[in-house]
Amino acid sequence: SILPIDTCKSTMQVNGKDGLKQLRVKIRTNGAGVLYHGALASGFSTMIGHFPWFFTYNYLNERFPRQKNATHKEIICRSAAIGFASSSISDISSNMFRVIKINRQTSLESQSYRELMREIVQKQGVLGLLTRGLSTKILSNGIQGMVFTILFDYLRRQ
């Protein structure tokens, strides 16, 4: 599993240069299982993110079919827009689980999902739970979704 590496990366991003020291203390205190904290939320995030992506992609492809006499530029723009929209809907749908995963991985104490959610809502409100980091995620995944969809549609036409 790649989750222990993800936990180390996330801990260093959130807690800076002291992140790995803090993670070692957390491992000594609670055992190596802390390297897998956030696995459930990560799984839900992936599972919940896939359906909206494919639903949006398929819906937009049917709703806005490629025109037979479309220029190369129009074909690329259509694919890019569909890819960006699909990725954005997926990110919006699954962001809450990413927020929970990161908090579970990087908290200094071992906390349950319920405790983490309650703490996040108390500090940042429900909106914080749903939208924290979302604009960056939409931008980065949107660009990736655009490139993927352009290449996928190009290869599919060949």
TrEMBL record:
<protein>
    <recommendedName>
        <fullName>Mitochondrial carrier protein</fullName>
    </recommendedName>
</protein>
<dbReference type="InterPro" id="IPR023395">
    <property type="entry name" value="MCP_dom_sf"/>
</dbReference>
<dbReference type="Pfam" id="PF00153">
    <property type="entry name" value="Mito_carr"/>
</dbReference>
<keyword id="KW-0812">Transmembrane</keyword>
<dbReference type="InterPro" id="IPR018108">
    <property type="entry name" value="MCP_transmembrane"/>
</dbReference>
<dbReference type="GO" id="GO:0016020">
    <property type="term" value="C:membrane"/>
</dbReference>
<feature type="transmembrane region" description="Helical">
    <location>
        <begin position="34"/>
        <end position="55"/>
    </location>
</feature>
<keyword id="KW-0472">Membrane</keyword>
<keyword id="KW-1133">Transmembrane helix</keyword>
